[in-house]
Amino acid sequence: KPYADATISVLCQCNKCYRGELVVETPISEADGALLDRVNRALSKHSALFADITPDFISDMSVKEYGFGEIIFSEKKCEKALGLIVSGGAVAKKKRADSEVVMSGFSEGDIFGAAALYTDSDKYTSEISSLAKHTEVLFIPQRRMTELFSVNADAAIAYIVLLSNKIRYLNDKIDSFTSPNAFSKLCRYLCENNST
Known about the structure:
six-stranded antiparallel β-sheet; 10 strands
C-alpha cells in the first residue's frame, strides 16, 4: 500500500490472541496532516470524554487500517483498548455455530470496546469487522484511559454515561428479540423510532 511512513505489523499487543492478518499501522508521531485531522474530528465527537486531552495524549498511539471484512476484534482477537473509528465503518455481530446477529454498526467517531476495557475477561463478546474498503481505527490503551480518568472526573463521568447508554441499547435489543410475536416487534420498532 502506498503509505510512506506506515509500518506493517501484527496487531495484538497482549500476546494471548492469534492475529493472522497483517494491517497497515501508522504511528501518530508519523501521521500526515490529513490523518491527524481525521483523528481530531473523530475525537471531537466525544467532546465530554476527550475535552481536555492534549496532543501528547495520543502521540504514542497508532492508527490501524483494516480492509473490507477484516476482523478488528473477536473472542480470539482482543486488546485492552478503546477503539475509535477514525474513518470508514464497522459492524458488531454475535456469531453462533449456525447463525449471526448484527448487534450494532459503527461509523466515523463511534467508539467500541468500552464495556471490555476494564473487564477481567480476556475475551471480547462479539466480533467487530470492517465494513469499508479502508477503515481506520485509533486504539486508546486502557492505561491511557485510566490516566485520563485519574486527572479528569468529567471524563470518567462521560465514560459512565457512554457505558450506561450502551447498556440501555443492549436491553432494548434483548426486548426486541424476546417480543412474543411479529405484531409486538413491529409496535416496539415504531415506538422506538417515533413513527406514527
